[in-house]
Amino acid sequence: MDEAGDMLNAAPSLQDIVDEIQAEKLTEVMKRKEWERSEKWRKMAKVVRRGGEGEGMEFEFDMRNPKLIERTWKGIPDRWRGAAWWSFMATSAREHEGSPSEERIVAEFHRLQRRSSPDDVQIDLDVPRTISRHIMFRRRYRGGQRLLFRVLHAISIYYPETGYVQGMASLAATLLCYFDEEKCFVMLVRMWHLRGLARLYRPGFEELMAAMGDFSKHWLNKEVASKLDELCIDTTAYAQLRIWDVFLLLGNDTSFMYESRKSETNTPQTVEYDVLHATSAALAQALREVLLGAEFENAMKALTSPIPVKDEDFLMKVVKAEYKQHHGKKRA
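The line above is the sequence of Rab-GAP TBC domain-containing protein; the predicted structure tokens follow.
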């Protein structure tokens, strides 16, 4: 009886058969390409710690390797993303004197679970609203939701001046897709210290405002910036994994800092956010024609609505071009 409905299905046409064959071929090509990319990353990876029975290995990547940087711009294969992110942040931690060790941060994570946080109620409200369609985060007080609460609870106490801010939840949830709760907390702490996120979330949002000002002045297309000024739209109105790949690799790259910028303004320097600025500039450039001919309402709608990206590879090429062009200006 379950198959009775099948007799009403039309027989597949020749075009349907051709489309199916082409789809299968395309899938095979994509699988082969992903395997080749993964193999390249495997060859770049260096085993630094082998786990016990049933445990995985820890890898290290040379962050100064030009091939690594180039391949990161192209996107880290998902199977290597967690290992690469961890390596990037661990390397940065070793290079920054005074950075707490992994063991110390993990011990602090467990200690903080025994304390209450003034932000627990708000965290409890936000957790079920965070990527709730993902299979990890569907069940209330179970699985990923429980882990997310514990991580956000700990980070809100670890940084008492900042506490919990709503934007932290989606970042922590993304990290939990690649790490257990302990490593997720370590990653957050290191990102706070080594990628400038602590300053972004600082009360008063001085660093955030400085970052927005830097983006408007030095990154945004002049015509688009002029149009937004004309419409009285501030950059705070519009502030994916491949972006984070590059941000975690290059986010602490301060080699391009230059004194002329310091002399122009007393605001904090925002070089850590250049990858994010480059992404915003690329998206603004994609919306250029829409924005230049738009009224206030349509411009705001375009800037604040989700922007569908049909071709991630092309987006990353534009982001990379924006990033290199900007740093080329800095050297000049």
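Note on the example: Strands lie at 46-50, 57-60. The mean pLDDT is 78.
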